[in-house]
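Allow me, if you will, to draw on your knowledge of protein folds for a short while. I have a record of one protein: its chain in single-letter code and its fold written as discrete structure tokens. I should value your view on which stretches of the chain appear to form regular backbone elements. Thank you for your consideration; the sequence and its tokens are set out here:
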Amino acid sequence: MLRDTAAFLQFIDYFFVVFHTALILFNLLGWIWKPTRKAHLIVISLTFASWGILGIWYGWGYCPLTDWHWDILYQLGEKSLPNSYISYLVQRILDLHLPDLTVDIMTLGLALLALTASVKVNFLNKS
């Protein structure tokens, strides 16, 4: 069956890297372009809801995309994954190993800035 092959798992791994990275970039920058502002506010609100509400049961910062990607990576034989998807991306793409706390603070800080910008351009900007 195709689903059980290493090639399929590798494809899904690449899909998650591309899709999840694009989603992260949209969360950070989607408020800038006027046609995407409402969608951005929805998506970043869902991200914070996942981190906080689902985080009650699964741990602070929980993301289902990360959970699903980790399942694929474990099936591919990956053994030592970081707690944070951002840490994983920084390690995989840039080959940098930053302290978890540094990554978590930067992730939360940038996400809060993006949420603040989104609220401002969606509700306080009349242009």
In short: DSSP finds five helices and no strands in the chain. The mean pLDDT is 94.
